[in-house]
Amino acid sequence: MSVATKALVVALAMLLILGVLTAATSLILPWQTALVLWSGLLAGGLLFAAARPVSTAHLVSRADPAPTPDAARARFAALAARDGPEIVEICRSQLVAPAGRARRTVVIFHGLSSCPHAQVEIIPLVHAEGCAVLVPRMPHHGMRDNRSDSLRHFTGPVIVAHVDEVIDIAAGLGDELVVAGISGGAVLAGWAVQNRPEVTEAVLIAPFYGMATFGTRFNGLLMRLLLLLPNFSIWKNPLKGSRSEAPPHNMARQSSRGVAEMMRVGLATRRLAAKGRAKGGRVVLVLNEADIAISNTVAESMGAAFESGGTPVARVQIPRELQLPHELIDPVQIGEKVAIVNPALTGLLAWSRLPQAGPRPAAPAAEAGTEAGR
Questions:
Q1: pLDDT in tens, 252-298
Q2: Residue 59 to residue 51: CA distance in whole angstroms
Q3: In a 3-state reduction of DSSP, which class is residue 192?
Q4: Top-confidence residue, 15 or 128
Q5: Which of 40, 194, 263, 322 could form a disulfide with 278 if both were Cys (CB 3.0 to 4.6 A apart)?
C-alpha cells in the first residue's frame, strides 16, 4: 500500500469516527456545535497522543521457576482451577506431558481474543515427538459469553504476570524450553525470551507488534491514542454488529484497551531488546507474506531490535503463494492449510529445525539436520 493510500485510509477512518461522534452528540447539541467540539477534541487528542511518552517501567518480570516436574504439575493444577464455569470447556488451559521430566517443553501462547482450542491439532503432533506441551488460556479469554467485553481487563501487568506464571510452570517440566506464540501470543513469547533465562528459544509466529499496512510510527501513534481514550469494544464483524457470530473459541468483540496494552508490552520488549541481549536464547521470526492482519514491516523491525542488542534471530518466510490466513494454525479459519503448516511447525518447535532455504518453496517443509536433544 502506497503512502498516499495509507493517508487516505487514515483520513477516512478519522472522518468516520468524527461523523459517529457528531451524530451521537447532535441529539443534545446542535450538529454544528457538536462537529466543532469533536473536531477540536480529536485534533487535540492526536497531538497529545503523538507527544505523550508511554511508560513501560512498571512491566517487570518476576521469576519463580518450579524446581521439579511434580511442583510444575501442582502449579498447573492451580492455573487450570481458574477455568471455572464461565469458561468454555474447549478453551481451558491444556498440559500434555510424558511421565517424569521431558527432554523439551513447548509452550504455545494463543492469540488475542482466541483460546487454546486454536492449537488443538498441533498439540498432539508436538507431544508425539517426546515433548511436554503447555497451552495456557490467557486471562479474560475463552469466556462462555463470547460477546462480553472482558478483554478490557487484559492490561500490561496482567500480561507479564501471566507470562511469568506460565514460564515458571514450564521450567520444571523439561530440560529445554521453547516458547512459541501466534499473533498476540507471539508478543508474550518475545517478552518471555527477553526476560527469562529458562527460555531456550522463542518462535514468534505472525507476531502482532503492529497493525497491517502501517509502519512503526503510525502504530506507535495508534497505541498512544488507544491508551489515552476510554476503552471501547468493536465487533469483529462491524457490519453485523450484535448479530455477529464467532467460533466458540473466539471472542466476538475486540477491546481497544486490550489491543493497546498488548502493543505496550511489545514496546517494552523492544526497549529492553535494544539495550541488551535477551536473557533467553535464539528468536525465530515466522512471517506470512499473505498476512493482512499484522504489519510484517513492524515485526521485522522487532527482529532487528533483538539483533541490535545481540540476540540471534533466525527468519522463516512463508510465501504469499500459499495464501495462508493470519491464524495459520487454527483449523477453523477460512483458507487454513494446517496439513501443510503443522508438520513444518512441529519440526521447528520439537527439534528446532528451520524450514528449507531456497527460492519459493511449495510448502514450509522441515529440513533434515541435527536434532537438538537426540
A1: 989 999 999 999 999 999 999 999 999 999 999 999 999 999 999 99
A2: 21
A3: helix
A4: 128
A5: 194
Give residue for cell 519463580: 64
- Alpha carbon distance 59, 37 (integer Å): 36
pTM for the model: 0.84
User: Which CATH number is associated with domain 69-219+222-351?
Assistant: 3.40.50.1820
β-sheet bridge partners, residue 131 = 104
Q: Three cell numbers at 24? A: 451521537
Pick 74 or 147 by higher pLDDT: 74
Q: Which of 4, 267, 300 is nearest to 159 (CA)?
A: 267
CA distance 194 to 207: 15
Task: Supply the pLDDT for residue 158.
Answer: 98
Q: What residue segments make up the domains of the chain, in order of their start?
A: 3-53, 69-219+222-351
Amino acid at site 362: A
DSSP category for residue 87: B
User: For the chain, how big is the Rg over CA atoms in Å?
Assistant: 21
Q: Crossing angle of helices 216-228/256-275, nearest 10°? A: 130
Considering only CA atoms, which of 347, 345, 341, 354 is closest in space to residue 312?
354
Q: In the chain, which residue ranges form alpha helices assigned H by DSSP?
A: 3-25, 31-51, 69-80, 122-127, 156-171, 184-195, 216-228, 256-275, 296-308, 338-351
Gap between the Cα atoms of 204 and 202, Å rounded: 6
Helix (H, G, I), strand (E, B) or coil at 245: coil
Closest CA to 56 of 223, 198, 202, 279: 223
